[in-house]
Amino acid sequence: MNRKFSLSSALVILLSIVHVALAHNVRLGAAGRECFFEDLRQGDQMTVTYQVSDQEGQGSSGNLGIEFWVNDPRNAILKSEKDVSHGEFTFTAQLAGRHVYCFSNEASGFVSREVGFNVHGVVYIDATETPTDPLEKEVKSLSTIVDQVKDELQYLLLRERVHRNTAESTNSRVKWWSLFQLGVVAGTGIFQVYYLKRFFEVKSVV
């Protein structure tokens, strides 16, 4: 199943450029793939940042690597990465049309992943379309900064969740390993007491 998003038509204008930021989360099932697209004009710039986490909450107990790639309107590969858990890719559209980017968990046959990703766009527009009111320019500039801060906070929240899952997984492993060691020590002690008791036991013959 492919999900599709496009850059919002309601763009925030700052001087002669527009900054757009979209944040999404997608679940990749075992051997799953999700693809998205952006319709860009020639000269538009797009950045995709992503972070992978374990859907089952196992932190770093397993390999979090997925595949990521970006294709241009001619289906030529602009970027292709394998076995990555996070990354960032920025490109400028050389061709107008639909640019597709995909996340794939097909290398994993039984573990689900969750991918949090952000799409940043810089769309060039005609300078005559920019607002002439200084107050409007400042408001839209502030809106751009707020969007960037929000985007960064979402990324940090995802990173915090990944690290928290890693810490909880490590603590759980340490706990169970300690209990296992305690059981081994207790079992060894009981066996030694039993063995020594049998060794020094005086057998009487009737």
Can you walk through the features of this model?
This protein is α+β, with helices and mostly antiparallel strands and 206 residues long. It has a single domain (12-163), classed as GOLD domain (Jelly Rolls, Sandwich). 32% of the residues lie in helices and 36% in strands. The chain contains one helix and nine strands. A five-stranded antiparallel β-sheet has the order 1-2-9-4-7, with helices on one face. A hairpin with a 2-residue loop joins β1 (12-14) and β2.
Give the SSE map.
Blueprint: E1 12-14, E2 17-28, E3 33-40, E4 45-54, E5 66-71, E6 77-84, E7 86-92, E8 97-104, E9 113-124, H1 134-199
Antiparallel strand pairs: 1-2, 2-9, 3-8, 4-7, 4-9, 5-6, 5-8
Structural category is alpha+beta
User: What is the share of helical residues?
Assistant: 25-40%
- The CATH first-level class comes to Mainly Beta
What is the 3D shape?
elongated
Number of domains: 1
CATH architecture: Sandwich
Q: Can you count the beta strands? A: 9
Gap from first CA to last CA: 83 Å
Instruction: Write the CATH fold name.
Output: Jelly Rolls
What would you report as the Rg, rounded to the nearest angstrom?
A: 28 Å
What is the count of helical runs? Answer: 1
Biggest beta sheet attributes:
5 strands, antiparallel
Sequence of secondary-structure elements: EEEEEEEEEH
Please state the average pLDDT score: 76
Strand order of the largest sheet: 1-2-9-4-7
| Approximate strand percentage | 35-45%
Uncertain segments: 1-21
The name of the CATH superfamily reads: GOLD domain
